[in-house]
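Hello forum,

I keep getting stuck at the same step: I have a sequence, I want structure tokens, and every attempt I make locally crashes halfway through. Rather than fight my setup again tonight, could one of you with a working pipeline run this one for me? It's a single chain of 162 residues.
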Amino acid sequence: MVSVESYLRTSFADLDREFKYGVIEKRNPADVPHATAHMQLIVFFAAHRKMHQLRVLPGLRLRIHDQLVRIPDISVFYPDAPSDAVPSKPPFIIVEVLSLEDRMTKVRAKLEEYREWGIPHVWLVDPYERRMYCCEEGLKEVGTLRAPEIGLEMTPADIFEE
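Reply #2:
Ran it on my machine without issues. Output:
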């Protein structure tokens, strides 16, 4: 068991890790499909940054509550950037990109944590099957990811390379 304060002062030599109720949890490493989708998501959001007042922050620690710190692949803040080093205010959008080693049970639970925290748009991208999902009341496959409040739409062509 580790305290959240100790975790927040720790940096890891390899991939950053998450914190859940005193336990430090490893994250799965990226491979080429995962890293490619991740990069395409950053490029997409960066291209819309000024027009939509977005702040795109990949791999950012988010303090969901005192004993839970998650690190989504992409956090998108709107209209204001976070003011804390480890934000405790929900972003506008988070995107998780599946890794080959991910277990859907754990992924769904994590997406639900984000939704319960109050993130308006919780998205999942599967670079292996080239599918996109939104998490509203459960996980739903969609053809387009949308943030209608700002007129933002993302299609498979925006993420997946031919």
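The mean pLDDT is 95. If your local run keeps crashing, start a new thread with the error log.
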